[in-house]
Amino acid sequence: MSSPLTLARTFLFVPADRPERHARALATGTGGVIVDLEDAVAPERKVSAREGLAVSFAALPDAGRRRLLVRINASGTPWHDDDRTAVAALVAQGLIAGVVLPKAERADDLRLLAEAVGPDGLLVPLIESAVGLAAVYELAAAPQVLRLAFGNLDFQADVGLACDADEAELVPVRLALLLATRRAGLSAPIDGVTADWRNAQRLAADTARARRGGFGAKLCIHPDQVAPVHAALGPSTDELAWARRVIDAIRSAGGGVVSLDGRMVDAPVVRLAERLLALDAQSPP
Length: 285
Known about the structure:
The protein is of the alpha/beta class. It contains 13 helices and 10 strands. The strands form 2 sheets. An 8-stranded parallel β-sheet has the order 6-5-4-3-2-1-8-7. Strands 9-10 form a two-stranded antiparallel ribbon.
């Protein structure tokens, strides 16, 4: 799927019932904005928040709308069916790119959502439970899924973990998301939040862990997190220099397999170099 969200490194949450923040969130330069109808909106405000989205989004520029996702309420909640109808209309009007489904656990829920939003609507399942983890391969393979996302805090609560800041206990879970992503041919998954948004050291450590673990993006809860996460998940100067040398070597040889610095450069190496250059082509926040 061709979308600016495919290689986005940051996804910034903003409450659905704070329309004055929607344009400001886009202005941070974040790769994607997730307008949240779930956790960020109190039950008594969910209906009015949902009804106000079309007016808010209509005031945004077209390019900004291509970076908008709406996190609806989970399947089985009293608001889910009406949320699904609403986001279908928003996608049909070109006001959003797609939908984040929290507590994703069943591929059938994603299929229903895909049918509702139509072929142009992108889906991002949020894995937040043991049941969701058990179904992660089916969720990744569901229609119109762009990327998987990890709800690290909700997952801990669901299974009864009490992780330290490094979340070492969640390494197998993150690896499962990465493997499901690779098997389904999706873009790199989106890692969970750093709740202490004032702690720059913690954010840097969490983002470095995400990159080491194969994640290509991170959920952000405050605008101040966007720029450092974007920078940390991008290629380094040395990586870019290497990638350009790989592409130059392949072009000079006219394709095929070549040697660079005594090492074979074949198709997988070229794909990695191309991905690094594509990441660098993103506009910084």
